[in-house]
Amino acid sequence: MRRLLDFLIGKRHWLLFLFLEVVSFMFIYHNNAYQQSVLLSTANAVTANIVSLSGSVTSYLNLREKNRALIERNGQLEMDLLRLQRQVESMTADTVSFRGFISNPMREFPYEVITAKVINNSVTYLSNYITIDRGSSDGVLPDMGVVSEAGVVGIVSTVSKHYSVVIPLLNPKFRLSCKVLGSSYFGSMSWDGRSTRYAKLEELPRHVEFKEGDTIVTSGFSAIFPEGIMVGNVSSFERQRDDNFYSLTVRLTTDFHRLSSVMVIKNYRQNEQIQIEEEARSND
Amino acid sequence: MINIVRGLTYFVVFVLIQVLFLNNIHFLRLTTPFLYIYFIIKLPVGYSSMRVTFLSFLLGLVMDTLSNTSGMHAAACTLIGFVRPYIIELFMREDLPENLYPSYKSFGYGNFIRFTLVLVVLHHLALFLIESLTLFDPLFLALRIPGGIVLTMLFICMVESFNRESRRNED
């Protein structure tokens, strides 16, 4: 017994080493579960303040670029507005031919947008995360979608009072249901860990017609993103092994290297949709 | 006391440099220099294995918290903190004074670089292999590990040459 104790005391640095490694791996595996702990992430107010130091400096660096993008976007939206206005005008002028179209005032658009600033952003790891300066006190909740003015960014994962951590497209945990604009067949988008400009869209049925350069948008099936939000353009494609599906390489429209402001999309009906979907699954 | 203040300064300065500047570098969209392990390299030689291991774990944990990497850095740092005393023994046969810390002068250029290289290689191997638990991509991994090692070594050697503390030690 005495010798055993002596041995253990003599090798106590081995024990400490093993113990700390076990703790580290517990963190690794614990965090692979969907929800990250607030304490050990940048959603924590203390750490968020530290990392936001660099965010607050870099946010001034690309203002010119930002401004140009906003003006462009503004112009585009104005064009859309004019187009829609004309459509509405022609419909109201010619009600006889549009009996079939009755706009339903009860069916309002169930989405609301919360703007946020990116205070920390990683692109160098395999599992990347973004920290934004809006939290539960601003109405942000886990599982909300996040978009930039260029396209889809990611999904909110951890929320503290004033900050939240977003899982962006550049993270293997993130999967997004997407479709080719104009068709209604959808596939699953994920990141392969290589270039930050490209992602893979897989399981797209082979009979979908598209060509290089076509626009990829969200399908809207997930209750997180509304339908039709820009994701990217088709850059190349190939058939998957079993020949029934296409695998597309998509050039993302969001430049994650210079992300500085984003919008969180709040869907009033998200809970309702998830609830009824789960109910249907449990009834099976 | 001086050792504690010195250690704390190294810790804070290099964690901040890493988090605020170096984490934003993504050289050739491939690698990031991990200069922060310079703290582990510069701990005094006389520290016990337990102490070095524990301090390394703390460093890794702080890095994980600040870059949302959940345990990856902690595991890699604990490993190199644990093997550090053995590697010092391997390269420096003779007895070293307690308060000595590794530098070009105290270890000699060759030995310091070799000692650093072993730690950096082990750290990067551990870090990238743990990272590929989420997504395994052998070709990309084969590019990232050597790239990261070269970049980190470059940064550490550069900082070491400009480190005034190490130069003052020469006189």
Textual characterization of the structure:
The complex is a heterodimer of chains A (284) and B (171). By secondary structure, chain A is α+β, with helices and mostly antiparallel strands. Chain A is built from five helices and twelve strands. In chain A, strands 1-2-5-4-3-12 form a six-stranded antiparallel β-barrel. In chain A, strands 6-7-8-11-10-9 form a six-stranded antiparallel barrel. Chain A has two domains: 45-92 and 109-171 and 263-268, Rod shape-determining protein MreC, domain 1 (Thrombin, subunit H), CATH 2.40.10.340; 176-258, Rod shape-determining protein MreC, domain 2 (Thrombin, subunit H, Beta Barrel), CATH 2.40.10.350. Chain A is globular, with a radius of gyration of 24 Å. The longest helix of chain A is centred in the first third of the chain and has 31 residues, at 63-93. Chain B has 171 residues and is an all-alpha fold. Chain B has one domain (2-166). Helices cover 70% and strands 0% of the residues of chain B. Chain B has eight helices and no strands. Chain B has helices at residues 2-20, 38-41, 49-67, 72-91, 104-107, 109-131, 138-162, 164-168. The mean pLDDT of chain B is 85. The chains are: A alpha+beta (284), B mainly alpha (171). Chains A and B meet through α2 and α3 of A and α1, α3 and α4 of B.
Short description:
Chain A is of the alpha+beta class. Chain A is built from five helices and twelve strands.
